[in-house]
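Record type: ASSEMBLY
Status: queued
Input:
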Amino acid sequence: MNILITGANRGLGLAIASEACERGHYVLAGVRSPGSSAEGLQELLTKFPDQVTILPLDVADENSVRYASEQAENRVRSLDAVINSAAILLGRDQKLEQLDLEQVEQSFQTNLFGPIVVLKHFLPMLRQGERQSIINISSEAGSFTGAYGGDYSYALSKSALNMFSAQLRNELAPQGIVVHALHPGWIRTDMGGEQAPGDATVSAAGILNIVERKTEADALFIDHNGAPMNL
Ligand code: NDP
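Status: finished
Output:
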């Protein structure tokens, strides 16, 4: 399969890229700053030189996304999966009175408009693929049932991402393209922190099982094992 992964230089995105290479897939690794922040990816490139293309891709900049899609098209004709993993978590622990609206805007720019713009520009390539999937990495924090009274900008952007996923799922269902919003679990990454119980490699393996259709997943909002989550 040809798989585009955003935020592929660290955290969950890198774990998915590594697992995808191990499984023999071809990875287009979207990276905001290909220079300094991509050591893990460089190692992957060394290990699987014929299976990885590093694609400069800032999801918060539509020109960057458009250019990345043109570069990708020169490299592979079609895509079978798009995994939107890139996201930011700003203003942790801010209560409403301290809320920085600029950070709310930035969060929407990356966590919601990012996946929208990526799919807008990569959909033509995805339409050429087979057994296609779109996985928008979301969060339990974006569910109404999971609202915990904090992380406003992050939670709101993920909630809207779930809605975007629902819309797109219905638009693309007639063409057989599957769309999920997916909670990867609380995992040890820069965002999740060291105290998180989950391992990114385990979530990555679960996500690829869903993409490969080894795991059956029917619901819109699921976890990395394919189990339905409450919206
Ligand atoms: P990290 O903070 O570890 O990594 C975030 C990634 O997103 C980095 O690769 C970062 O790149 C990239 N990124 C941020 N902004 C942009 C941008 N504008 N363009 C391109 N890439 C960008 O996060 P995780 O790996 O933990 O998170 C992955 C996904 O999982 C996210 O969607 C997150 O919301 C979700 N999630 C994570 C949980 C957890 O416990 N970790 C729990 C629930 C959901 P750079 O290095 O350039 O900053």
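Annotation: The chain has one domain: 2-223.
Annotation: Residues 6-7, 9-13, 32-33, 37, 57-60, 85-88, 110, 137, 139, 183-184, 186-187, 189-192, 196 surround NDP (CB under 6 Å).
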